[in-house]
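Inputs:
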Amino acid sequence: DSGVTQTPKHLITATGQRVTLRCSPRSGDLSVYWYQQSLDQGLQFLIHYYNGEERAKGNILERFSAQQFPDLHSELNLSSLELGDSALYFCASSVAGQGLVTYGYTFGSGTRLTVV
Amino acid sequence: GDSVTQMEGPVTLSEEAFLTINCTYTATGYPSLFWYVQYPGEGLQLLLKATKADDKGSNKGFEATYRKETTSFHLEKGSVQVSDSAVYFCALSDQNTGNQFYFGTGTSLTVIP
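Outputs:
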């Protein structure tokens, strides 16, 4: 157990629907990162939150949004889902500041989203 | 900008063979370098890291040396096992570009008995 908890582990939904993926970071970590992993595009950085504030955006679609709550858990909302959104979605957490370059990320086990 | 280039896979080796997975990087500052491993159906796990030039990271028989002169961080293992079958990701973190990781595309390794 890495200490980063993601729920649900699997999600199957229809096109056009909306889903919410949840992530609880490792105890003491203030930063949460979301990544999408698909077969054809590898690991794509989506967004980074630090202590409730958005810090960086990557290749995140406008249909996707995220937030980090006061208890530091984060949610990734995916709406108007398309078949191409089927992927593994990973959350990672890290300590603040120098901790990232020293210790790296801790990843959760991911949510596998299948859009049918 | 910062980036990581990793050798293309997939790689298939026989048990006890020598493994090298090449990784080179581009960075504006002085990055830390990492190798992550992803076993089937699981998330990424940190395998090893090096935070400055000439450092050698090692874990579970895997090694990688941070070579600033060649901007490389190649992963090696002297004798692979079937249980090493996984996808390996090279990554860097550079404080000059904020708290963000840059990942390579991953290299799939299959070890056959």
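Remarks. Chain B touches chain A at residues 31-32, 34, 36, 42-46, 49, 51, 89, 91, 93-95, 98-101, 103, 105-106 (CB under 8 Å). Chain B has no helices and twelve strands.
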